[in-house]
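Batch job 17 of 40 flagged for manual review because the log was empty.
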Amino acid sequence: MRQVAEPYIRRKAIRHLEKKRVVIFAAGTGNPYFSTDTTAALRAAEIEADVILMAKNNVDGVYSADPLKDENAVKYTELTYLEVISQGLEVMDSTASTLCMDNDIPLVVFSIMDNGNIKKAVLGEPIGTVVRRNG
């Protein structure tokens, strides 16, 4: 990562945000047992992020089952983190879900393949599935 981006330093990231710069977090923490989902939730909590945007390749939100394997899968427009955890929905790992829930950080899951979706997500337009602490 050092070849393409500067290392994560919390105060530096916050300073970039204060200067109205876009900050993109990539990769993991380098620690065992921490997935990239957990890293995203951890960094979001550390900088008091308003939202986590989770762009996906093969789906446009959260479904009741894998829509590529189950034609009866139902897409959710909104869920709570407790629903994600209790239903075993494979949005992000349970540690990351709990961290987001505890820190009241919404998650927007959307397709990266549709033109303009990143802009829509950043602008807060209804897109994909929103996961929140409370519905």
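Reviewer: the log was empty due to a logging misconfiguration, but the result itself is present. The CA atoms of residues 29 and 61 lie 26 Å apart. Unflagging and moving on to job 18.
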